[in-house]
Amino acid sequence: MRIGLSVHYRIVPAVQRVESVSNGLSYIVLSGRWFNITVLNMYAPSKEKSDDSKDSFYEYLEQVFDHFPKYHKKILLKDFNVKLGREDIFKPSIGNESLHRDNNDNGVRIVNPAKSKNLVVKSMMFSQRNIHKYTWTSPDGKTHSQVDHILINRRW
């Protein structure tokens, strides 16, 4: 599945580069006033996929992430297919506003690299009612989950 980004017509002049890197990863580089902004958009493998495919996806994500200059403001967004919990060890990176109690395996796969890259999960830093935390609802409407997240440099 190829993924992409929609760009509002007012920021089209700021677009420096757009690239679909792989089936689950694309990015856009925008020129800003004092620094460039890189937005990585992704669709990570779900929990049903093999560990090898998940490992290779996250390794490739780190390679693409490291490809951009340090001074870029980097934002990772979209469907990580992860459940991030409220474990104390991860609170500095993910906050305390998760819909879930515990991380799943994919959650650990994104939190550890996020910590090493000095990223925080901003989508879980703000207090809101649980109904507003859902990013996925099952077809029967009974199961809800928070699998879409926004990660950004801790500096910003």
Helix content: 10-25%
Name the helix and strand elements from N-terminus to C-terminus, one letter apiece.
EEEHEHHEEEE
* Strand line-up across the major sheet: 1-2-3-4-8-5
Tally the structural domains. Answer: 1
CATH class: Alpha Beta
Classify the fold: give the CATH topology: Deoxyribonuclease I, Chain A
β-strand number: 8
Regions with little confidence, pLDDT below 50 for 5+ residues: none
Polypeptide structure, described:
With about 160 residues, this protein is of the alpha+beta class. It has one domain (about 10-155): Endonuclease/exonuclease/phosphatase (Deoxyribonuclease I, Chain A, 4-Layer Sandwich). Helices cover about 20% and strands about 30% of the residues. It has three helices and eight strands; from the N terminus they run βββαβααββββ. The chain has a six-stranded mixed β-sheet. α1 runs parallel beside α3 (about 105-115). It is globular and about 40 Å long.
Please give a handful of descriptors for the protein shown:
3 helices, globular, Deoxyribonuclease I, Chain A, six-stranded mixed β-sheet, single chain, alpha+beta, 8 strands, about 160 residues
